[in-house]
């Protein structure tokens, strides 16, 4: 392919990128202007002759190299970033190429949808917006590099359920990959990479030089039918994947990596979302591997949008200073019906942790966790009712969170410092805690007070070491885990095709 002249390469690319359906530039329209000139015709015939052979070769090569990938929807139209002036040299900005490619493909929203392939290469870019009925596909050797130039990151207003930015009160930078008010949007690949190049942002954070909140790597808001899968996301400036005010979200096959001392690099943060499935992800991060959220104090209470019907399974987490899965601390729209299973954590501060505070209001209830395998943990169980961290002085001290129906079963943990630190709110205990079939092996020099419980109520069964008096041991209780499936668990993937550039 390298010897084919540029316009013809573009033509071939456009023509054969999409193996199933028509492309945008046809052979006919490309040749049309030359027809009136005899020389043109001869040239055309000559070109066609050689192209014909190459097309045949390419077609065969492409067919062989085309890869199948699982997705909630396949797309009729397909294009490659280079069709829109993309340059994969790691230096040229591709922000405009992404924007014009996606804007071009958005015209197919009601005609089978569009797919944008990012081929092998290093693609420097600022923030760009996704569109509906659209797939962004990253080739395995494609690396998106987040721009270091702040002007490449447009500003957005603060999130209504937060009332302010988390780093600074004013606006926030748009995420590298951003989408709002969309239906049916996919970010996938055969393990291509998105590198946020976050270190300059982490420096600014540490030096207190931010007056706008840092960008995330992927944020999709007010959207329905979202898939984010089979890619590697590294060095995010802050949170990594943030679906918010959305429904029917599938996140799977992600590798998320950030230095364990990088600030606020939470892996996946489902926030005020309904029907979410997160599975088969490997996360190493400087903050919670998964943080389930729903808005902050008076702003979250007013917005009133919970996160609910969330399944998390087959996750591996490494996060020495944070939780495997955190519920909160921002939970002011409520969190309910969370099902987490087959969770592995290594060298992580805690398992499934609840973080809340007076002023948050709302609730965390009907939480079900089973089959956790943990190794080298500070805490197996940790709940905190005094997390603090308010958006401002305007929070309502009477807005007490209701934490109830929290169930853990079938847990094995090794090399543990503290079995549990369960700290409810005085006068507003955390209730309905159930912990069963748990075997904890302690570190060489374990702490004396293994179960430190205040303001909590519940039961335990078949748990070692012996729990606190507030969670008395009962005979033969299996803490509940729902038998039914959530609708999002029944969503099947189709097999789609992408040529493998
Ligand atoms: C964008 O779409 C139009 C069809 O509406 C097509 O003619 C045009 O060539 C496309 N642009 C590029 C750069 O492919
Ligand atoms: C991306 O979406 C945001 C929010 O709707 C909007 O403010 C911004 O202008 C969009 N950017 C582009 C390049 O369209
Ligand atoms: C996106 O959806 C939200 C919630 O429905 C709505 O308030 C907002 O106006 C919409 N934004 C756009 C740009 O359509
Ligand atoms: C994807 O890439 C990451 C980073 O290179 C690697 O650790 C991971 O094993 C890869 N995943 C798959 C499924 O190949
Ligand atoms: C903070 O914002 C002001 C304007 O709003 C700007 O002039 C200044 O450069 C910003 N400071 C930093 C450190 O970004
Ligand atoms: C995506 O990841 C899943 C497992 O998470 C795997 O079964 C599937 O083959 C992967 N697909 C591609 C195209 O890499
Ligand atoms: C056990 O945990 C301690 C920290 O408490 C750690 O330093 C040590 O390496 C761990 N040992 C093993 C065998 O993982
Ligand atoms: C907390 O929620 C539970 C379950 O919804 C309910 O029974 C209980 O009354 C609530 N407690 C408070 C203090 O509101
Ligand atoms: C107890 O939990 C372990 C995993 O930690 C599991 O293998 C075992 O089957 C569970 N026992 C019961 C009775 O459920
Ligand atoms: C027990 O927990 C309380 C509240 O979280 C804390 O203040 C106290 O220091 C803990 N005690 C020990 C001995 O760890």
Automatic annotation (TrEMBL):
State what protein this is by name.
Pectin lyase superfamily protein
Q: Which GO terms describe its biological process?
A: carbohydrate metabolic process
Q: Which Gene3D superfamilies match?
A: Single-stranded right-handed beta-helix, Pectin lyase-like
Species of origin reads Quillaja saponaria (Soap bark tree)
GO MF assignments: lyase activity; polygalacturonase activity
Question: Pfam families, alphabetically?
Answer: Glyco_hydro_28 (PF00295)
Family designation: Belongs to the glycosyl hydrolase 28 family.
Record's keyword annotation contains Membrane = no
What keywords were assigned to this record? Answer: Cell wall, Glycosidase, Hydrolase, Lyase, Secreted
SUPFAM superfamilies documented for this protein: Pectin lyase-like
Predominant cellular place of this UniProt entry's protein: secreted
Where, per UniProt, does this protein localize?
Secreted, Cell wall
Q: Which residues cross the membrane?
A: none
